[in-house]
């Protein structure tokens, strides 16, 4: 099969095959660190394309290396492979065959685009340098990128620059965003356990009410963003769970609050944690209760370096790719590619995949990756490789 036509266009055979891969992956989703079938599939394809294949980083991670010419210049392209614990309701013919698991974030599309790009790049004659196609497990909060790095990703496969994209249904098809600086926020998860003394609900003065303290604390946490963080800095504090009590006539001895915080600037992240600990201690203390806090900083902010981001924008706007490059604000969502960008300069971009009709957002049980975006993503990766690792 010819992957790239003489005129530089991607062949229709390759693009049809990429759609078939994508739908097969969609039908067989696997969650964090259990992407065994996906990993086998990726490794088999990369081997067929003639790439050197390395397996096992992060458990199911796969790296396909394409080396041409004599230049030491090296870039990495990362695609995430995991699905989500969601029961699919898309009604698609290629809907998930695994109960309670689905590709609701479009990582099936990311894998198919990176594979097709590897296939196309393997057929190019003008490359001079190295491309590592990095297939990563467990992007959805479980820390697959962190684990691949800890197990030696960039020691074994050093990269001058690293790139990743995410399909973005909120933006129209044919557009993309690659900002200088922040794209996605830093994420922490917090758990606050409040301990008091349980007692009969009719004699509340005989105990100390952990539930009442928790209610006051949830309200007070909203003062962090509104009163302790510079209004010109973006941040979020969201309490999302509160658990306590088991009977209508018992004042509970314990109550737990769980939630998430988001920020871009590290000093803001520090401020949020400091204020949360101070409020929890003071408010629980005021109600004669004690607190135990676990504050887990999951990922830093996803920050693009300006030269790689500029390269992505110029490649995206070039005739070979023909995307409209938009300038929209960053998202308060998070992304574990952030840890790769802490290790190696690079760019994370959003590829617009929005349809005018039936559009469902990422993580919706009705979501299905928009296959019309596949040729755009593949063309973008191929053009980026050509622009970064070629004799020209
Ligand atoms: Zn997701
Ligand atoms: Zn995702």
Walk me through this protein's architecture:
This protein is of the alpha/beta class and 392 residues long. It has helices at 12-27, 36-49, 107-122, 144-150, 153-156, 210-228, 266-286, 306-317, 337-343, 374-388; strands at 52-55, 62-68, 74-80, 129-136, 161-172, 175-177, 181-184, 186-195, 199-200, 235-244, 250-251, 254-263, 290-299, 302-304, 324-325, 346-354. The longest helix has 21 residues, at 266-286. It is elongated, with a radius of gyration of 24 Å. The model has no long low-confidence stretch (mean pLDDT 96). The chain binds zinc ion (2 copies). One zinc ion binds at residues 105, 107, 139, 166.
What integer value in Å does the Rg equal? Answer: 24 Å
Instruction: Estimate the helix proportion, in percent.
Output: 25-40%
How would you classify the quaternary structure? single chain
Class from helix and strand fractions: alpha/beta
Spatially, the strands of the biggest sheet line up as 1-2-4-3-5-16-6-15
Indicate the low-confidence ranges by residue numbers: none
How much beta, percentage-wise? Answer: 25-35%
User: What's the β-strand tally?
Assistant: 16
**How is the biggest beta sheet arranged?**
8 strands, mixed
- Averaging pLDDT over every residue, what do you get? 96
Order of helices and strands: HHEEEHEHHEEEEEHEEEHEEHEHEH
Distance between the termini: 26 Å
Give the overall shape: elongated
Number of helices: 10
Question: Which compounds are bound in this model?
Answer: zinc ion
